[in-house]
Amino acid sequence: MTRMVVRCPAKVNLHLEVLGLRPDGYHEVRTLLAAVGLWDELEVEAAPPGVWELRVEGGVSLPADNTVWRAAKLLLSAFPDAGGARVVLRKGIPAAAGLGGGSADGAAALVALAKLWGLPVEPGQLVAMASEIGSDVPFFLFGGACWATGRGEQVLPLPDLPRYGVVVIPGQEPVSTPAVYRAWDEAQQESALPSFEPAPGLPRPGAGWHEGEGFFLYDWLVGKGELPFAKLRNDLQAAAIALFPWIGENLALLARFSPLTAMVSGSGGTVFGLFRDEGEAVRVAAELSPRQAVAVPLLRREESQLLAHAE
Ligand code: C5P
Questions:
Q1: Residues paired with 84 in a beta bridge
Q2: Which of 233, 299, 310, 311 is most solvent-facing, going by the fewest CB within 10 Å?
Q3: Is 96 annotated as a binding residue?
Q4: pLDDT band at 12 (very low <50, low <70, confident <90, very high)
Q5: Ligand 1 center from residue 135 Cα (angstroms)
Q6: Which pathway (predicted)?
């Protein structure tokens, strides 16, 4: 293979609990992630060993240590003779917006380069490399809907969600994830800052699965078929709004349209509303268009799973 194109979707967090600050500086989370139809595109072309070029299109400039380069470095350290590559990244997902664009690019780079170079990488090895690139990267290998724990890198794929329509308002300026987590830490100082050891492993459906805050997933997995909208929340939301009041304004705008639920995605600044179906989402987005609102579908696993490209 000499050339390959992979489309990678964005994500929203339909639920995000922050359990506490860990000794390693990350925060222990429990989150429900869902792939949505906003896309970046990554094109890779084979080049002689030692050649590495990355061009970004879409008006975004990436840091030198970006997720695409980190993916290439991890593959090359495991397979030093793999080869070189010329890469074009076409950005359609707003950056630093809580939509996981950089993480999606890292996952896409892993699967595209592994395939381009014909590397014998096991899926488990790809997942391990993905979690080294960033906390949200493993999710994109699986796509669809996933429950994630630990710092977000321990991913349990779930059955596809109902086909809700999503209205996304990406926000006015970039939002720094570490800054929002720090604001969350500061807000906790008032009470006692919870501290957490890293989770020992993934929760698995079964005995005890429904205990604690993960209860809603159990309900859903056993077949209610609908998300418990009233219980969904994002613990970073207050911190994000405190830092960027326009996030709260966008949320208030969405609330006027009576969504099933509306909240901040990840650390923001994107806010989104869930609606019964795509038609309703399209109508709401049209009324909100001055705020750059877009209607996007929730994606099924088969539409969004990047691992499929590695096969
Ligand atoms: O894992 P990733 O590199 O995407 O995380 C970026 C930053 O976000 C971390 O350096 C950390 O400050 C913060 N973060 C966190 N807890 C998480 C995920 C991210 O504190 N679970």
A1: 47
A2: 311
A3: yes
A4: very high
A5: 7
A6: Isoprenoid biosynthesis; isopentenyl diphosphate biosynthesis via DXP pathway; isopentenyl diphosphate from 1-deoxy-D-xylulose 5-phosphate: step 3/6
